[in-house]
Design a protein that fits this description.
The chain is an all-beta fold and 334 residues long. It has three domains: 92 residues, Immunoglobulin-like, CATH 2.60.40; 94 residues, Immunoglobulin-like (Sandwich), CATH 2.60.40; 111 residues, Sandwich (Immunoglobulin-like), CATH 2.60.40.60. It contains one helix and 26 strands. The strands form eight sheets. Strands 18, 21, 24, 25 and 26 form a five-stranded mixed beta sheet that branches. The protein has a four-stranded mixed beta sheet with strand order 1-7-6-3, with no helix packed on it. A four-stranded mixed beta sheet has the order 9-16-15-12, with no helix packed on it. Strand 22 and strand 23 form a beta hairpin. The longest helix has 6 residues. It is rod-shaped and about 175 Å long.
Length: 334
Amino acid sequence: MIYVFQVYIYIVDDNDVTPVFPSDVIRLQFREDTPVSTLLYIARASVGRTNSTINYSLDFETDNDFEGYVFIDRWAGVIRLRRAFDREINAFHRFTVLATTENGRTANLSVLLTVLDSNDHSPVFSHPSYLCHVTSTTVPDIPVCTVTATDLDEKENGRIVYFLTADDHALDIFRIDAFTGAIYINRAASGNRTLTVVATDAGALPRKSSALVMVTSDVLPAVNCAVESLEMSVEENQPAHSIVGSVRLVYEEGNSVIVTRYHLIQDGGQQEFDVNRETGEIVTKAILDREVSASHVLSVSAVYSLPGKLIYLSQLLCFAEPFSAAYMTIMHLS
């Protein structure tokens, strides 16, 4: 007798399929100002069966410093930014995405991430302020001082351009090399000044910073009469001590000089005028008569002081420093 048995064989899944990423390596690029929580990448591995569960994780063994900057959703494979990038600390990162099945089989995906520069740093001066000194021998083609600023950004974001800000008169005297920060003078000038130097980068949205430049000078200011000559008129028969006009000395910038004493040197020998020793006002000493004299030529000297020096002005002597001379010719017309 022959017996026939029907045998059913069931193949039990041993979950022995290894997950596979579409590629072994991916390259990513993001700007360093990328917002936190930005989606960087979605890792997807396949195992050939839809019912297999894959667990995703990150390995920072080759870049421990980057741990904590990104995180991954263990089930969806979504990689997001946890902390802001800083290209100036590290511009390149490498880490690994691990895809692990239930039986422990794992696939690796290497991620190469480059952080691109954004203009997130302002120029920084080497000093908060600088001191320049000008002498009478300073020439226009030699810098009186040089300022320096640095910028941690790269390319145009880190390329620095310098310029000066001050009143118009100071900018006529001083200039700065836009690329080296060297400060020059166009001409020797007296007086101390404070300039502001600005360093700006060349980024699309430029950032800037500033520093003070204190300029000292041992150049004596040029002192002159406000004008070379004055014509003053006064009616005859005015009472004595009538004011005819006034004289004053000025620096090269046009500011008045503080005069210690004015002195009338010449009034045509007629002694009909006087000058107020303190104010420089020209006054009559007597009643004028046009029919006696219709015009008078006067010369006035002045004693004034500069810091640390006494300057005496004489009609007869024109000395070099520390002596100088200044005169005002006054015409009196009826």
